[in-house]
């Protein structure tokens, strides 16, 4: 197979890579915190530049139906149900805040996003942050919209006052899903489009009134198509929202094996709104059929990253939680869906295979790089993919994701030097070549290769 890297068209600029600290960072302390922060945000690790911090909905313990502590978050707002009043205690959620500050100290984060899965429980209809008692029903009454806005922006102002570089706020997450009902497993809240817009409008008004140096980010649509276009069209029609909104964030779940979903998303949304930046702000293999120790999970992750960037037009790519609970299924596989798997108190944790998929991009494609249109589109089998990028230093970085048999790849281009990094089930980030440019690349079956040409 020949890949022509000569005279390639530059597409969108990459704004970076990131992950979320939701639901796990409050338990990550001590040596584990030091090591994991370096792995994710340090120069010896991934050097990620995007950090998503969860502003939790809190729990009224007598009323909360979420039983797993890793699926709910302590809030800074303490509400007394009897007095029907509350106050802020910013000593709460201390471990998560300390971990965020530790990651910021690495010096690579330029995008700090505060996001919420639900309003505070005291503002909801059910008194729970896990959704309404009826599926597909908004869990916050209209009379509490402004309370939610105040709560979230008070937290934002506190962090800004602490010197934390909050750049974006994302108060709504995956509004289309049913959330709540008879069975709940995490924080969440459903919103109809008109409810989403009304709340966003109130946030925009208050951001402007308070003169906050932050912008709205979202609406974190849970899939690329479906209601996503409806959300986008409604947002851009609201002039007040658009004064503080320039990034449309979405999640690329539920289309792992369909690259056409990504090209359709780009055609319908990205190409029609050049005034906006589009961020892929959350993805993991869902359901996680690969397991943490199967390199297939890394191959799928690497394929999705490349397709989200080059086919869908995303300007940044953010993995869902960096760490999740070790979860051994009946076959003995750990189905934790994150880059790192850990037990509840972090006395044991390890790197999952998909971590290396992110490494093949994040370690070699810095902020300011361009996606390149190399004319490659995956075949029907979708088991062989090639993605290319040009860095600010004018290096060309090509990522080859081979989920099939051995292949031979020829890179056509005017280069003097090349570096080749290979990962398979048995080898991780192995430098197989660092020499004068040679156009021939051997791509082993079930491998990820990053080729850096200059």
Please describe what this structure looks like.
This protein has an 8-stranded parallel barrel with strand order 3-4-7-8-9-10-11-12, surrounded by 4 helices. A 7-stranded antiparallel β-sheet has the order 2-16-17-18-23-20-21, with helices on one face. It has a 3-stranded mixed β-sheet with strand order 1-19-22, with no helix packed on it. The protein has helices at 30-41, 94-104, 145-161, 193-210, 228-237, 239-242, 259-270, 296-310, 354-362, and strands at 2-4, 9-13, 16-20, 50-54, 77-80, 85-88, 111-115, 166-170, 215-221, 245-251, 277-282, 316-318, 323-325, 340-342, 349-351, 370-373, 384-390, 396-402, 407-412, 417-423, 430-436, 440-443, 447-453. It folds into 2 domains: 16-371, Alpha-Beta Barrel (TIM Barrel); 384-453, Golgi alpha-mannosidase II (Immunoglobulin-like, Sandwich). The model has no long low-confidence stretch (mean pLDDT 97). The protein has 9 helices and 23 strands. It is α/β, with parallel strands linked by helices and 454 residues long.
Short précis:
This protein has 9 helices and 23 strands.
State the domain count. 2
Helix vs. strand class: alpha/beta
**CATH topology (level 3) name of the largest domain:** TIM Barrel
Largest sheet: 8 strands, parallel, barrel
- Specify the number of helices: 9
The percent range for strand residues is 25-35%
Reading off the top of the CATH hierarchy, the class of the largest domain is best stated as Alpha Beta
Give the helix level as a range of percent: 10-25%
Mean pLDDT: 97
Strand order of the largest sheet: 3-4-7-8-9-10-11-12
User: CATH H-level name of the largest domain... which superfamily?
Assistant: Glycosidases
Rg measurement, Å:
22 Å
Distance between the termini: 21 Å
Overall body shape? globular
E-strand count? 23
Low-confidence parts: none
* Assigned CATH architecture of the largest domain: Alpha-Beta Barrel
